[in-house]
Design goal:
The chain has a domain of 32 residues. The relative contact order is 0.10. Helix content is 60%, strand content 0%. By secondary structure, it is an all-alpha fold. The protein has 5 helices and no strands. The radius of gyration is 17 Å and the shape is flat.
Length: 55
């Protein structure tokens, strides 16, 4: 991403996304390095769905 970031316009949506992501990369990719962390939150979403839709 670092290499590609210099090739896009900073104000473009992808440029803004890269600018946001790059300084946060270590924290954003923590789940990939820690086998105890789950990559999805389906269990949480399923648990709160009744509250969110008012059932």
């Amino acid at each position: 991403m670092t290499e590609e970031h210099v090739k896009v316009l900073p104000k473009s949506p992808i440029g803004q996304a890269m600018a946001y992501s790059l300084p946060r990369w270590n924290k954003l990719s923590t789940y990939a390095n820690d086998p105890l962390l789950n990559m999805d939150n389906n269990a949480v979403e399923n648990a709160i769905r009744p509250i969110a839709i008012g059932s």
